[in-house]
Amino acid sequence: MKGSSARLLLLLPLSAFRAAAAFVPVPAAAIKSLPSQRRSSVQELHSHAISEIVAHDPLNVGAGVAIGILGSGIKVIQEGDVAIVERLGKFNQQLEPGLHYLIPFVDIIRTRLTRREQVLDIPPQKCITSDNAPLLADAVVYWRIFDPERAIYAVEDLSLAIQTLVLTQLRAEIGKLTLDMTFSAREQINNVLLEELDVATNPWGVKITRVEVQEIMPNTEILRAMEMQMAAERQKRADVIKSEGERQKSINEAEGEARSRIIDAEAEAKSLVLEAEAEAKKLEMEAKGVAKALDAIAGEMSRAEAARFQLMREYIASQRELATSENAKVIVTGGGGDVEDAFAKAIAFYNMKD
Questions:
Q1: How far apart are the C-alpha atoms of 301 and 292, rounded to whole Å?
Q2: Nearest 10 degrees: CA dihedral of 231, 235, 240, 246?
Q3: Is 95 in contact with 86 (CB distance < 8 Å)?
Q4: What does the alpha-carbon distance between residue 180 and residue 173 come to, in Å, rounded to a whole number?
Q5: pTM surpassing 0.70?
């Protein structure tokens, strides 16, 4: 059919093509864009050209009409698009991008579809959560057609069907969650919607590539209650932080005080040790001095007499210190025999050492 039509076109004279061009209607959009006076002039000229051709060259008129009819079968499909062709009301073929020829009045392009990815905006929809909280939710769906024949003949209105299906699934998924979960489980909702919608739209020749829940908006009363709850939570956290700070402060102060006491005790202990060592050193030095003194005295008197002399010296010194202290005291002294007895015992002790 295509080859015979092309050969017929080659046999026609040039005047037939001119006649066919005259019978091509002027586009309505082009006529409307002209001023009113020029619009009427173009229409009159077009009608006059057709009448002149019919009056003077009726054979070429018929040839021109034939060329116009044959030329109407030439179709060009753009890249990324596909056309559904019906022959006598029944599906015949799909036209891919490129140049095609159809049989005039027999083959008709039912519709043109795109294979490119499309975006479907889902309007806000009322939903009820599992804890009976009303809210509005909307979404956006990315989809593309992979089987144009099924997209046309398996469903009447493809966009409306996808939108209704998304709304139904969105309500169902939000109804499974509580209000608090809807704000944190958005990714989960997207994945579930994508999986379920992809399965449901597969018989329609549609591939769902992505589903995104855009906004989840509770009503005004719930928003006000949520704001009050968040304010209470923030105040609670502030109180906890303040109490933690005060507790840490008390702990730090107690630890500091305990550490200070430990340091003071250690310092006092060291001081006592040093004082004891100094006193021992002092006594040792005094003992050495006394020993030297006794040795010096012993050179002049016996050892017993020297000891008696030293004991009497220390006894007198202790009595002097006791008498000069600031505290009230009562000094009871024994008779001379007691003192002599004490001196006798001390002399006996020195004699035993000798």
A1: 14
A2: 160
A3: no
A4: 14
A5: no
Supply the pLDDT for residue 118.
92
**Rg of the chain (C-alpha set):** 60
Measure the N-to-C terminal CA separation of the chain; round to a whole number of Å. Answer: 156
Between the CA of residue 207 and those of 169, 198, 299, what are the distances in Å?
16, 6, 129
Encoded amino acid at 178, one letter: T
Give the Å distances, CA to CA, from 224 to 34, 85, 88, 208: 59, 58, 63, 37
Q: Do 68 and 105 meet the contact criterion of CB atoms below 8 Å apart?
A: no
Tens-place pLDDT, residues 9-44: 444 444 444 444 444 444 444 445 555 655 565 556
| C-alpha–C-alpha distance, residues 10 and 228, integer Å | 85
Please give the Cα distance from 196 to 202 (Å, whole number): 10
Question: What does DSSP assign to residue 203?
Answer: G
